[in-house]
Design a protein that fits this description.
With 262 residues, the chain is of the alpha/beta class. The protein has 8 helices and 6 strands. A 6-stranded mixed β-sheet has the order 1-6-5-2-4-3, sandwiched between helices. The protein is globular and about 60 Å long.
């Protein structure tokens, strides 16, 4: 049964992504930069929602996803399922790692969304990244960042935050929208669909495609605003403290059922 499910989902994902390439290209390519970025965000939201449906994701949300426009969405990170769940909820611009450009298929799909590429190995580019994120916010678009810098199992709290993206909020006076996200496999399995440790991506994707489904819960917390005189490091640490304070309660709620705080 799992093998049939995998083949069926791979076929549908290929068809859906094959539609996405020409649709985004024809709709967005001849626009001005920010019109194209806004257009790509809407198409990416549609693609993420469709892809999540195909692989059997049941997305629940606590809070108002419509409150994300023009804000820096600061999220915990457990792997590629976050992108589908949050991409389906928010019309956002992403900030993926630069090495994803070279991934077969995924790199090309990611590039179509007009992301802000983040090269974590080159400190000289951090200022350019912050400026691009700031411009995104100034144009009223939601910007999604994963300040932990890598993914975790989602069960043992947050990793320390990197502060680069928070500079953009200080420059623009933009509010932050903290988000916690959790996933678990449906059915009689203890498999955690997070991407962490030494797990190979293709191995994880193969297992996910064979699952009965995935329950994903997105907790949207009250927005935060930069304080006068606050540095980006201080803002990052304050945001981390606030999110960590919610983390244990949200994880307990998530573990208890499929209501996501409702």
């Amino acid at each position: 049964m799992n093998g049939i499910r995998r083949i069926y989902r791979i076929f549908l994902l290929a068809l859906w992504s094959g539609f996405f390439f020409p649709a985004v290209t024809l709709s967005c390519v001849f626009r001005t930069k920010w019109s194209a970025v806004r257009c790509a965000a809407k198409w990416t939201q549609l693609w993420a929602a469709g892809s999540a449906f195909i692989i059997g994701m049941k997305i629940r949300v606590a809070g108002d996803p419509g409150n994300a426009a023009g804000k820096l969405v600061v999220s915990s990170h457990t792997g590629p399922l976050d992108v589908l769940a949050e991409g389906a909820l928010f019309p956002v611009r992403f900030a993926p790692q630069a090495e994803m450009r070279h991934w077969p298929l995924f790199g090309a799909l990611t590039a179509l969304s007009r992301p802000v590429w983040v090269d974590r190995g080159r400190r000289t580019l951090s200022g350019e990244t912050a400026r691009e994120i700031a411009e995104t916010l100034q144009h009223g678009l939601a910007m999604l960042v994963y300040p932990e810098g890598t993914s975790s199992d989602g069960r043992h709290g947050l990793l320390p935050f990197k502060s680069t993206a928070f500079e953009s909020a200080l420059r623009t006076g933009t509010s932050l929208l903290p988000v916690l996200i959790f996933h678990r496999a449906l059915g009689k399995t203890a498999f955690n669909p997070a991407w962490y440790g030494n797990t190979a991506f293709l191995s994880l994707a193969w297992r996910i495609l064979g699952l009965k489904g995935i329950y994903s819960c997105v907790y949207i917390m009250p927005e935060l605003s930069p304080a006068p005189g606050e540095t980006r490091k201080e803002l990052a640490e304050r945001t981390h403290r606030v999110m960590s304070g919610y983390c244990e309660k949200c994880l307990a709620d998530f573990t208890a059922g499929e209501t996501c705080g409702a």
